[in-house]
Amino acid sequence: IELSPGQFVDLGDIRLGHAQEITFHLDGLPAGERVSCFLKSLEAPPHPALKARFEYALVDQSGAGKARLVPGRYTLLATAGKTIARVDLDTRALGEAPLRVAMQPAALLRIVPPPLDKSVALTITDEHGATAWSRAFNWSGPIELPLRPGRYDAAITRSDGTVERRTIEIGLAGAELDLR
């Protein structure tokens, strides 16, 4: 259970669901690449003081994955090397066979961070308003973030609290976001 900052809750007020194991298979997983896979609930939390959170899934090198989830709707996001998959699912509609998820070529967003003495927090949302990536920068070298090709919004929060917003169009050739 994760509470929003400053919130209190009586645990007796929360109806918790029984987690079930779901299985899936990532098709087209590139050999030897590290896999990152998580699921985010699309359901409202069971109490207003709670926050939706990410559930991480275990995936082996063959692409077989599993996660324990409370029944409901989720978005599965997986990345491996220069491939990505995103699919919305409802655990109540899944059958016995593993859900097949196709990995697709990813577009790489090259993010150039500011100098370490000018920290920023960056949140990137997709065309549906879902958070694709969110981090505070505490390193100095550029990174490459695999994303699905498309239009994204970036919210850059500077150390003085100001927020700058940018729109990024990312094609298969990739794009760059310079935060300096």
Unreliable stretches: none
Secondary structure: helix percent? under 10%
Helix count?
A: 0
Radius of gyration: 18 Å
State mean pLDDT (0 to 100 scale): 88
Query: Order of SSEs, N→C?
Result: EEEEEEEEEEEEEEEE
Give the amount of beta strand, in percent. over 45%
**Termini, distance in Å?**
37 Å
In what order do the strands lie side by side in the largest sheet? 3-2-6-7-9
Indicate the structural class: mainly beta
In one word, what is the shape?
Answer: globular
What characterizes the major β-sheet? Answer: 5 strands, antiparallel
Q: Number of DSSP strands?
A: 16
Would you kindly provide a written description of the structure presented here, covering whatever features stand out?
By secondary structure, this protein is mostly beta strands. It is built from no helices and 16 strands. The chain has a five-stranded antiparallel β-sheet with strand order 3-2-6-7-9, with no helix packed on it. It is globular, with a radius of gyration of 18 Å. The N and C termini lie far apart (37 Å).
